[in-house]
């Protein structure tokens, strides 16, 4: 019995040892295969950045995003323009007007319009199949969980001036050099525009008014739009514009108090029939007809779409410089 027990015990030990060896051999082979696969992936990532990622700092902390995203969604009405100025065409954007401004119509011809709302169109964003979503935190923080469930979402801080926003976005994409060039080019363009405008009208005064559906807003030198016209392009404001005000909401009856030599009129939405009617009604009044700028044919009508981001994005600013110079040249030869 004792010898039989030892035989059985020996057989069981051999089975256990063989099983253990078999299991040990399995992971070795698998690990070897996986190791080869990992090496192959690393080599592919080195030569082809599809699948490569990087970590960026955002308002929600560090997140991992594609190193070279191909399908970017830009939220807010300014970020799409900032992206394009860096050479990035977004696949979907929020838009205030039905059509893109002239300077974006061709490059954005295949870009999805999602409209503008407090809550983004998640269905449209999902349909756009983005690999990265980028937005300002003040606009999209409340929607972060839903957005990040669609694609990695970069929320950036609120800034006082758009050049800082541009630099924030450039840092995400590694396009700091391009951002610097955008700013340098715009500065040079502004100087050329300012010199040309001064040669046309010198120190004559200019008033910049925005006709909206329910009000007329005068943009002063302390507002981004007004600062662009009066500080960056050097057009002299009327002397009695309140120094501490950014803008004034006025009625038609008050307009003669700011009777400038030249009047820039921006229709908030030139396709809105209510705004069109408001402007036509303004022009039919004796108040309008007696304005100095109207009498001298020094009224310059500019578009709502093209000037919508004025003072808030580089392409809009560049467009406005050319638009103003052409308009002033036409009436001040």
Structure description:
By secondary structure, the chain is an alpha/beta fold. It folds into two domains: 53-174, Rossmann fold; 181-331, Rossmann fold, CATH 3.40.50.1980. 49% of the residues lie in helices and 16% in strands. The protein has 14 helices and twelve strands. It has helices spanning 2-47, 79-85, 102-105, 122-128, 137-140, 144-150, 162-173, 176-201, 224-232, 273-283, 286-289, 292-295, 304-307, 314-331, and strands at 53-58, 61-66, 72-74, 92-93, 112-113, 132-136, 153-156, 206-211, 216-219, 247-250, 262-267, 299-302. It has a five-stranded parallel sheet, sandwiched between helices. Helix 7 runs antiparallel to helix 8 (176-201) and helix 8 packs parallel to helix 14. The relative contact order is 0.10. Residues 1-50 have low confidence and may be disordered.
Describe this protein with a few key phrases:
about 325 residues, alpha/beta, Rossmann fold, about 50% helix, Bact_iron-sidero_bind
CA-atom Rg in angstroms: 31 Å
Which spans of ≥5 residues are poorly predicted at pLDDT below 50?
1-50
Would you give the CATH topology of the largest domain?
Answer: Rossmann fold
Described by the principal axes of the CA atoms, the overall outline is elongated
* Beginning-to-end CA distance, first to last residue: 124 Å
Please indicate the percent range of residues in DSSP E strands (runs of 2 or more). 15-25%
Protein name: Iron complex transport system substrate-binding protein
Region (Disordered): 26-52
Keywords: Signal, Transport
Family: Belongs to the bacterial solute-binding protein 8 family.
């Amino acid at each position: 019995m004792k010898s039989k027990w030892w035989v059985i015990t020996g057989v069981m030990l051999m089975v256990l040892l063989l099983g253990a060896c078999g299991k040990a051999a399995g992971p070795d082979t698998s690990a070897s295969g996986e190791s080869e696969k990992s090496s192959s992936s690393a080599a592919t990532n080195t030569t082809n950045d599809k699948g490569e990622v990087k970590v960026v700092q955002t308002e929600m902390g560090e997140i991992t995003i594609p190193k070279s995203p191909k399908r970017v969604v830009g939220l807010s009405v300014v970020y799409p323009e900032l992206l394009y100025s860096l050479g990035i065409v977004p696949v979907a954007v929020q838009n205030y007007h039905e059509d893109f401004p002239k300077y974006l119509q061709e490059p954005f011809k295949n870009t999805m319009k999602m409209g503008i709302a407090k809550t983004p169109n998640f269905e449209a964003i999902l349909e756009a199949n983005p690999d990265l979503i980028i937005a300002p935190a003040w606009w999209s923080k409340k929607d972060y969980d839903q957005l990040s469930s669609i694609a990695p979402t970069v929320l950036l801080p609120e800034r006082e001036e758009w050049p800082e926003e541009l630099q924030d976005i450039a840092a995400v994409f590694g396009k700091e050099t391009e951002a610097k060039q955008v700013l340098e080019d715009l500065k040079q363009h502004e100087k050329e525009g300012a010199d040309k405008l001064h040669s046309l009208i010198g120190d004559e005064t200019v008033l910049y008014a925005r006709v909206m559906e329910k009000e007329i807003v005068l943009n002063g030198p302390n507002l981004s739009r007004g600062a662009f016209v009066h500080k960056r392009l050097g057009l002299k404001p009327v002397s009695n514009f309140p120094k501490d005000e950014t803008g004034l909401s006025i009625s038609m009856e008050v307009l003669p108090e700011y009777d400038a030599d030249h009047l820039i009129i921006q229709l908030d939405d030139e396709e809105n029939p209510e705004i069109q009617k408001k402007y036509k009604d303004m022009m039919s009044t004796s108040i309008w007809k007696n304005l100095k700028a109207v009498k001298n044919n020094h009224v310059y009508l500019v578009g709502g779409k093209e000037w919508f981001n004025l003072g808030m994005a580089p392409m809009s600013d560049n467009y406005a410089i050319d638009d103003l110079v052409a308009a002033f040249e036409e009436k001040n030869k």
